[in-house]
Amino acid sequence: MKRNLLKFAALTLIAVLGVSCAPQTAPAAAEPVAAEAALTLSGPATGVSWSMEDLQAYPATETDYTNKDGETATYTGVAFSALLAEVGIESFSSLTMVAADDYTADVTFDELAACPNCIVAFDDGSLRSVMPDLSGKLQVKDLVEIRINQ
Question: What pTM value is reported for the model?
């Protein structure tokens, strides 16, 4: 009986040591998480979007904007012309800027073409349009989408 008990104990010890000494497989690598889209372009260039990191990788443009109270602020961002050129948009009748709260504002091709310092600006973790010398209604806060209208 003692002999069987010793054999059982030895086999159990061998099994435990074998499992604990076996090579461990590394956990599967986590799938890379795509950066969340901060701005989407719709219309002829359907499916184009930029994360905040994508937008910050563009050459920065600074623009001063004076609000209706006469207060001037300097904004940093990406020129509308650079974003549209990247996706091959050369002309359109107008574009609609859409805020997260569904506020919309339209700007014509001619207005935007005459405004080289119109930008999509970085504004405390969100985006906004800054359109100097154009209507205050075109200064869209929390900008999330640009719709191209042909």
Answer: 0.74
Confidence of residue 12 (pLDDT cuts 50, 70, 90): very low
On the CB side of 73, how many CA atoms lie within 13 Å of its CA? 11
Q: What is the per-residue pLDDT across 58-84, written as a single tens digit (0 to 9) for each?
A: 999 999 999 889 999 999 999 999 999
Tokens (6 digits) for 102 = 């569904």
C-beta separation of 98 from 146 below 8 A:
yes
In the block, which residue shows the tokens 């012309």? 81
Type of residue found at 40: T
| 36 CB burial (10 A radius; 0-12, 13-18, 19+) | exposed
Q: 48: closest CA among 78, 89, 76?
A: 89
Domains and CATH numbers, the chain: 37-149 (3.90.420.10)
Rounded CA separation 148/2 (Å)? 87
Rg (CA), the chain: 29
DSSP 24: P
